[in-house]
Amino acid sequence: MSTTSQKQPGDLVRITGGRNKTEEGILHEKTSKGWNVKLKNGEVVLTSFPFVVVLAKKGEFEDGEPWKSILAEDFAEDQDEPIPEAEPAIAEENTTAQNTPESPGTASETAGDEIVESAVDAAQAPAGATETGRLEENTEIPENIAKMTTLQLRELAKQKGVAIARTKADFLRIIKEKKPDENLERLKGKLLFDRVSELHISRLRSKEDLQKLLSK
Fold this sequence. Notes:
Elements: E1 12-15, E2 24-30, E3 35-39, E4 44-47, E5 52-56, E6 91-94, E7 118-121, H1 143-146, H2 150-159, E8 162-165, H3 168-178, H4 189-198, E9 201-204, H5 207-215
Antiparallel strand pairs: 1-2, 1-5, 2-3, 3-4, 6-8, 7-9
């Protein structure tokens, strides 16, 4: 967790009080009454200053890659480039070996160990995963994987045939593969987030979860 008290738009935060207590999101705009926080579902809520705790500062990243998000349209409009400085998120799906090298998305990185809201196709979740795609707590991480950098984890994912999307375009590609008749032009913000959930893409909450996935 970041120890810097100065907050700015783009910071990843947790709300600690009020109606949206425990929710996480991105600082959107500072007002005289508090911060407007953009939640993971795309909703922007006004939150009193004392109820906003910074989890990661805008621009924090590891191995040269900034935060990515499927809900970051207010921060970047180019759908074909990695979306910078926004709520962390990655989506994964198991693919055949022939598709893996051409996959445009390879990995989404973290700021330290506070990675990401990741995702993996629940229908193809590896052994040891729960029904929501989360890996069991007792899944052991081999020492060699535990010591890997983000770039090394990315390379291992490619070797295991796991494609990880890191741009909005990658998410749309995955949705199109699962639902060919989907109108991709209308998938923005909350609607895009909802469609990802409807297609049974489940969440991984931390870098440790990603390590457990790759340990299988």
